Structure to design on (319 residues):
C-alpha cells in the first residue's frame, strides 16, 4: 500500500469516527432501547414454546376440521400436511424462509461446533 | 480431601446460575454498547437509510444474543458483524425484489438494468440541519463512494477501516478466506482513491 492509500484510509477512519461521535441523542436513545430489547432475550429462554402457540392452535383447528370432513380413517394422510401447515404458519418459519442463507450459515456454524472460528 | 468435602468445596465456590446469567448479560451489554453506534453507521452507509439501518442493527443484536450469548466474548465481534452483513445483504435482496414488483405494477419508470442504487439513494443535501452538522461534506463524499463499491469490496473496506477488524476477523464476518479479504480490501481502497481523488478532504 503506497502513501496515498494510507492517507486515504486514515482520513476515512477520521471522517467515520467523527460521524459516529456526532450521532444525535434521539438516535442514541433508540440504540439503547434496541440493546435492552435484545438483552431481554437472555431472560426468557424457557418461553420459546410460547412463540409456536398461535400457529400450533391454527394447525390443530385445521386438522380437526379436516378429520371432521373426511372421517377418522384418513388421519394418517392428514397429519403430514397439517404438520407442514404448522411450520408454514409460524412467524419463525416465515422469517427463516426470508433469511434462508443466514440460517443455512447458522446451521453450519452449529455443526462445526466451538473452537473453529479463530 | 474426601469426596464429600470436594463436592462441598465445589458447591461453595461455583457461581450460581443466576450470577452467571447476570455476568453474561453485563458482558453482552457492554459489547453491544461498544459496537452499536459504529454498526449503525456501517449499516446506514450500506442501505442509505437510518431507520432501515436501525432495524438491521436491532435485528443483529437480537440474533447475536439469542444464538451466540454462550460463545466467548472474543468471538462476538466477527459473529456480530457477520450477522449484520447478512442482514444488509438480505435487505438489498428484498429491495431488488420490491423494485421488480414495482416495475411489474408500473410504479417505477425503469427496468432492472437501469436501476442505479446511488441515484436512487436519498439526496444528501436534503438532510436536516442536525444531520448536516453530524455529517461532514467529506464523509458524505466518502459514503457515496463506499456505497457505490461492489458489495464484497464495500464489506471488506467497512469492516477493516471503520470497524477495525483484522484480516482474520473480517474473513469470519464475511464468510470468506483471508486472501479474499485482502483482495477485496485492496481493490476497494484503489477504487475509492480513483473516485475521490488524491485531494479528498
Amino acid at each position: 500500500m503506497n502513501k496515498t492509500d494510507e492517507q486515504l484510509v486514515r482520513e476515512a477512519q477520521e471522517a467515520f469516527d467523527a460521524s459516529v461521535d456526532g450521532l444525535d441523542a434521539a438516535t442514541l436513545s433508540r440504540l439503547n432501547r434496541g440493546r435492552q430489547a435484545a438483552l431481554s432475550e437472555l431472560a426468557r429462554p424457557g418461553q420459546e414454546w410460547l412463540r409456536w402457540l398461535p400457529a400450533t392452535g391454527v394447525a390443530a383447528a385445521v386438522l380437526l376440521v379436516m378429520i371432521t370432513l373426511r372421517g377418522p380413517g384418513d388421519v394418517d394422510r392428514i397429519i403430514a400436511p397439517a404438520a407442514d401447515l404448522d411450520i408454514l404458519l409460524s412467524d419463525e418459519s416465515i422469517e427463516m424462509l426470508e433469511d434462508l442463507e443466514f440460517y443455512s450459515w447458522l446451521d453450519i456454524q452449529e455443526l462445526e461446533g466451538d473452537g473453529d472460528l479463530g | 480431601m474426601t469426596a464429600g468435602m470436594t463436592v462441598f468445596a465445589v458447591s461453595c465456590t461455583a457461581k450460581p446460575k443466576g450470577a452467571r446469567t447476570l455476568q453474561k448479560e453485563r458482558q453482552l451489554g457492554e459489547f453491544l454498547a461498544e459496537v452499536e453506534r459504529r454498526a449503525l453507521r456501517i449499516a446506514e452507509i450500506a442501505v442509505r437509510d437510518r431507520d432501515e439501518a436501525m432495524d438491521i442493527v436491532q435485528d443483529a443484536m437480537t440474533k447475536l444474543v439469542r444464538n451466540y450469548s454462550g460463545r466467548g466474548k472474543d468471538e462476538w465481534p466477527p459473529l456480530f458483524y457477520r450477522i449484520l452483513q447478512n442482514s444488509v445483504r438480505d435487505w438489498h435482496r428484498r429491495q431488488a425484489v420490491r423494485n421488480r414488483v414495482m416495475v411489474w405494477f408500473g410504479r417505477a419508470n425503469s427496468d432492472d438494468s437501469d436501476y442505479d442504487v446511488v441515484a436512487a439513494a436519498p439526496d444528501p443535501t436534503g438532510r436536516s440541519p442536525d444531520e448536516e452538522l453530524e455529517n461532514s461534506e467529506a464523509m458524505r463524499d466518502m459514503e457515496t463512494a463506499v456505497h457505490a463499491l461492489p458489495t464484497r469490496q464495500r464489506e471488506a473496506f467497512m469492516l477493516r477501516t471503520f470497524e477495525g477488524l483484522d484480516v482474520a476477523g473480517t474473513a469470519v464476518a464475511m464468510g470468506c478466506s483471508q486472501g479474499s479479504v485482502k483482495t477485496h480490501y485492496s481493490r476497494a481502497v484503489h477504487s475509492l482513491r480513483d473516485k475521490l481523488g488524491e485531494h479528498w478532504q
Observations:
- The interface with chain B takes residues 1, 4-5, 8-9, 11-13, 15-16, 18-20, 22-24, 27-28, 30-32, 34-35, 37-39, 41-43, 98-99, 101-102, 105-106, 114, 117-118 of chain A (CB under 8 Å).
- The mean pLDDT of chain A is 70.
- Residues 48-118 of chain A form one domain.
- The two ends of chain A are 26 Å apart (CA to CA).
